[in-house]
Structure to design on (210 residues):
C-alpha cells in the first residue's frame, strides 16, 4: 500500500491496541520486525529477467524472406537478416576444393524406368553412401535402402549415371532441414516410404515461391 495508507492503518492499530490495554512500543516492535523481514525478502528474492526472444538469422531474399519471417513470428521467433555478399565470399580460397563425391550433403537418385527419384542425405562421403545404395539394389536388400525397395517391388532399373549431388552440407545438424526442403519442393514422384525428417509449412511456402 501507499505510505499514507500505511500510516493511517498503523494509527488505527495503535488506537485499537491502546483501547485493549496493549503497550504501543510492543506493537511498534512487531511492526519493525515485519518491516525488516519484508526488506530482506525484497532484497534477496530472485526475479527472473525478461526472456529475450530467440532470433533466427536468414539471408535476405525478396521472394522468400518476408513470408518466412511471418511464419517464424507466429512461433515467437525474431528474424535478423544477413548478406551473403561478404568479403570472405569474394576472396579466392587457397585451399584445394574437395571433390563432390568426397563431400557430405544431399543427393538425388533417379529411376531409369519411371520418373520417380530418391532424395537422401549423408554425413559421410557421398561416394560411400551411393555405393551402399548400389549394393542394396544389386543384392535385392530392400530393407537397407528405399531405392532398393523401389527397384525390387516395381521391377525397375536405377539410372546411376544420372545421380546428382544437390547440396553440400558440412554441418550434420543441418542435414535434416536441407533434405526436408528438397523433398518438399520436388516436383517428381518420390521413392520414399516415410515422411521427410521435418514437416513444416515453411517448406510448402518455399515451394510456392521458388
Amino acid at each position: 500500500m501507499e505510505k499514507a495508507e500505511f500510516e493511517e492503518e498503523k494509527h488505527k492499530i495503535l488506537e485499537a491496541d491502546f483501547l485493549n490495554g496493549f503497550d504501543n512500543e510492543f506493537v511498534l516492535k512487531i511492526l519493525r520486525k515485519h518491516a525488516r523481514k519484508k526488506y530482506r525478502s525484497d532484497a534477496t528474492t530472485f526475479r527472473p529477467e525478461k526472456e529475450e526472444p530467440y532470433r533466427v538469422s536468414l539471408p535476405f531474399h525478396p521472394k522468400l524472406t518476408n513470408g518466412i519471417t511471418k511464419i517464424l513470428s507466429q512461433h515467437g521467433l525474431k528474424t535478423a537478416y544477413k548478406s551473403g555478399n561478404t568479403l570472405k565470399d569474394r576472396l579466392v580460397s587457397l585451399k584445394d576444393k574437395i571433390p563432390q563425391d568426397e563431400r557430405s550433403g544431399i543427393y538425388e537418385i533417379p529411376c531409369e524406368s519411371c520418373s520417380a527419384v530418391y532424395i537422401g542425405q549423408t554425413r559421410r562421403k557421398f561416394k560411400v553412401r551411393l555405393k551402399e545404395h548400389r549394393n542394396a539394389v544389386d543384392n535385392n536388400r530392400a530393407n537397407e535402402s528405399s531405392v532398393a525397395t523401389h527397384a525390387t517391388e516395381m521391377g525397375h532399373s536405377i539410372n546411376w549415371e544420372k545421380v546428382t549431388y544437390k547440396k553440400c552440407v558440412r554441418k550434420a545438424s543441418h542435414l535434416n532441414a536441407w533434405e526436408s526442403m528438397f523433398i518438399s519442393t520436388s516436383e517428381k514422384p518420390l521413392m520414399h516410404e516415410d515422411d521427410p525428417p521435418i514437416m513444416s509449412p515453411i517448406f510448402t511456402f518455399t515451394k510456392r515461391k521458388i
About this structure: DSSP finds eight helices and five strands in the chain. Strands lie at 55-59, 78-82, 105-110, 117-122, 164-168. The first strand starts at residue 55 and ends at 59.
